[in-house]
Amino acid sequence: MSLMAPFSSYYLAPLGPAAPVALLLLALLTGSLVYCVLAMIAARRYRHSGTPLLREFPPVSVLRPLAGAEDNTEQNLRSVFGQNYPEFEVLLSVHEETDPACEIARRVMADFPHIPAQLIRAGISPEPNAKVWSLRALLPEARHAQIVMADSDIRLETDCLRVVISELSQPDVALVTCPYRAAGGPGIWSRLESLGLNTDFLAGMLTQRMLNGMDFAIGCTIATRKTELEAIGGLRELQRYLAEDFMMGNLMHRRGRKVILSRSVIEHHIGNDAFRKNWGHRLRWARSTRRSRRMGYAGEIFTKPTALALLLWLVAPGAWFLVPVALLFRAGVAWATAVEILHDPLLQRYWWLLPAEDISGFLTWVLGFFGKTITWRGRKLVVARDGSFEI
Predict the structure, then answer these.
(1) Is residue 236 in a domain?
(2) How far is CA 27 from the centre of its chain?
(3) Per the domain annotation, does 52 fall within a domain?
(4) CA 306 vs CA 167, 188, 274, 282: distances in Å
(5) pLDDT value at position 12?
(6) How confident is the model at residue 300 (pLDDT cuts 50, 70, 90)?
(7) pTM of whole model > 0.85?
(8) Do 237 and 282 form a contact (C-beta atoms < 8 A)?
(9) In this structure, is the dihedral angle defined by the CA atoms of residues 376, 245, 132 and 92, taken in order, positive or negative?
(10) DSSP string for residues in 190-250
(11) How far, in Å, CA of 167 to CA of 354, rounded?
């Protein structure tokens, strides 16, 4: 409080009734700048971490649900079949045989005849989370104990399986979750979302990893074992959640098992949605996060230095100099994550859009506090207090 006393006496005294609001914003901004420092330290520690690769690798089953034929579907799938790994199988699923992804899957399978692979019809999911329904159809067909689940919009580096299985083989590790580099389309809204994911989202994960360890997972690419899934009730238990990936890691963590963030960075193609669909997608995940992790969601206020500095400037115009300070700290976090870890070409080209994404992300975060109804895959659903669906 002594650090705020000079600021309070010089800048806040003339504000009258607005002074308490400005003082609150100053306190939040101070906490946000501290968070930025922690995030940069966390990024440095992550860069200097790593697990030696195994000398002998166990066989792996890769589960890959498919739905539709987007621009990158085939190249993403080829990255799975092209893994530099001694023994693995690829299990693919579609909801119906009329899905255009079937043609792509068969073409890729034919180009890699030495890789054991199956294309399975899962049928239409009777529950909202169709991805987990597809995984449930694939899991019984998996021949191996080690399981890697990867979304269809994910592209893997050729050594991804070697890295995640080596990490999974460490003592007490139940699940390995991969960070990702978001690759957006040419649209402005896609670029903004990618900038946020590659800077703000990753920074939060790295800070959580440094301070408390990982107690959740992100589902783009996950490595685990059949026995670990069975211990938390199986995939059927997870299907009632919107954020099944978060719950998978959280339930394993509650059992005293380790969840770790992989050193293998994957590429996540997020599409090129127009404003309305993009905004709905972001608001859906904000509400889901808030319902699943209330305290953590509220604490995200400290990840918003740009917005806090701008609000403080509006309330106390004399505090304008804190805006460039906040932007400098924010730039430091963005560089530490998107450039030094993800090697993201998007930030290097469109860095000037980052303040706009910060404001957009702040508005989405605020709106996430209101309402519990979401629209997902054309269905209106209510998210319960534990993050599950109320149907």
Answers:
(1) yes
(2) 28
(3) no
(4) 36, 20, 25, 19
(5) 58
(6) very high
(7) yes
(8) no
(9) positive
(10) HHHHHHHIIIIIHHHHHHHHHHH-B----TTEEEEEHHHHHHTTHHHHHTTBSSHHHHHHH
(11) 33
Residue 72: per-residue pLDDT: 86
- Look at residue 353 and give its three-state secondary structure: helix
Predicted pLDDT of residue 78: 96
Q: Is the dihedral of CA 366, 368, 372, 377 positive or negative?
A: positive
Residue 104's alpha-carbon distances to 12, 55, 68, 139, 376, in angstroms, are 63, 34, 10, 22, 26
List the CATH number of the domain containing 73: 3.90.550.10
Identify which has the larger pLDDT, 175 or 368: 175
With the C-alpha atoms ordered 41, 44, 46, 51, is the resulting torsion angle positive or negative? negative
Query: What domain range is 81 assigned to?
Result: 60-282
Percent of the residues in the chain that have a pLDDT greater than 70, as a whole number: 92
Give the tens place of pLDDT for each residue, 47-62: 998 889 999 999 999 9
Q: Which H or E run contains 75?
A: helix 73-81
The answer to the question of residue 6 being in a domain is no
Contact between 228 and 174 under an 8 Å Cβ cutoff? The reply is yes
User: How many angstroms separate the first and last alpha carbons of the chain?
Assistant: 49
> What would the pLDDT profile of 83-134 be if each residue is shown by its tens digit?
999 999 999 999 999 999 999 999 999 999 999 999 999 998 887 788 999 9
Nearest Cα neighbor of 132 from 282, 292, 283, 245 is 245
Are 90 and 303 a contacting pair, CB within 8 Å? no
- pLDDT at position 9 is 54
Tokens linked to 174: 């139940």
Mean pLDDT value across residues 182-186: 86
Residue type, 27: A
Using alpha carbons, select from 219, 293, 301, 244 the residue that is nearest to residue 28.
301
Domain count, the chain: 1
148 in Cβ contact with 63 (< 8 Å) = yes
| Within a domain: 64 | yes
